[in-house]
Design brief:
The protein is of the alpha/beta class and 238 residues long. The chain is built from 7 helices and 6 strands, in the order βαβαβααβαβααβ. It has a 4-stranded parallel β-sheet, sandwiched between helices. The mean pLDDT is 96. The protein binds nicotinamide-adenine-dinucleotide.
């Protein structure tokens, strides 16, 4: 079940179903709205009868251009309150609502695995010098990691520990994955500055987290809960 604010999940689920010959559904959901999350949960149970895995992956990120993108990368002194609050809603309240609704099903089953996608910058502050002179390719304006993003990802890591201990006796494991930055259409000055702070000397490729995700949602990690697996090319080791 692929759930996202974007309607693209429907086509993505169809492609997965066709390619792999499995049941897959895409649904448009705003995870900050309790009614929509509850409806999603009911749909999954109606379709599949149970819920084994929840991956909280959605986050407020602003791709592309426009005024909102310019605001999203505003300096802290001018950071818009509405974007700060929106990040709290999507990145933390969204995970809260999904865990609450789907966790109830898992408690009844007395089994389940939850994976919260955090970030390397939930463990460390970014070195702000990596953004010096970096340009957002879409707006031509500044590019950085906004404070709301890093703060909510740090919050998600302790949210993970809390639920892991809270549900340990219910057969539910809860872990976090902290990925490092995935290379996309970034300013080369930023890429070079970031790579210089990563022992493996590069950003990640998009497919380099699937092994970690599979590990954390499967019985391969059966003795693991409340953990935060950092996969970041060594960035946080320096
Ligand atoms: N890409 C990276 O470099 C990187 C690095 C570290 C961590 N992460 C984390 O990995 C995860 C995926 O990142 P990505 O790069 O694929 O980001 P992305 O922006 O491509 O995907 C985020 C998704 O969240 C969805 N979303 C936003 N608000 C929502 C809401 N209210 N309800 C439902 N869905 C909503 C968006 O529609 C989007 O599809 C995120 O949690 C991100 O913080 C990404």
């Amino acid at each position: 079940m692929l759930a996202d604010l974007s309607g693209e999940t429907v086509a993505a689920a169809t492609a997965i179903a066709d390619t792999h010959g499995i049941a897959a559904l895409g649904v448009t959901v705003d995870i900050t709205r309790p009614n929509e999350v509850n409806r999603l949960t009911e749909m999954v149970v109606a379709k599949f009868g149970r819920i084994d895995i929840l991956i909280n992956n959605a986050a407020l990120t602003i791709a592309g251009g426009g005024a909102r993108a310019a605001q999203y990368f505003a300096p802290f002194e001018e950071y818009p309150l509405d974007l700060w609050e929106e990040a709290l809603h999507v990145n933390l309240t969204g995970a809260f609502l999904c865990c609450q609704a789907i966790g109830k099903v898992m408690v009844t089953q007395r089994s389940g695995v939850i994976l919260n996608i955090a970030s390397d910058v939930g463990n460390i502050s970014p070195d702000h010098r990596i953004y010096e002179g970096a340009v957002n390719p879409h707006t031509g304006g500044p590019f950085n990691t906004p404070i709301a993003y890093a703060t909510t990802k740090a919050g998600l890591i302790n949210f993970t520990r809390y639920l892991a201990t809270y549900w340990a006796d219910k057969g539910i494991r809860v872990n976090a994955l902290s990925p490092g930055g995935v290379f996309a259409a970034h300013d080369s000055r930023f890429v070079d500055a970031l790579a210089a702070r990563i022992p493996l000397a590069r950003m990640a490729n998009a497919d380099e987290y699937k092994g970690a995700v599979l590990f954390l949602v499967s019985d391969a990690s059966s003795y693991m809960t409340g953990a935060n697996l950092i996969v970041d090319g060594g960035r946080t080791a320096w």
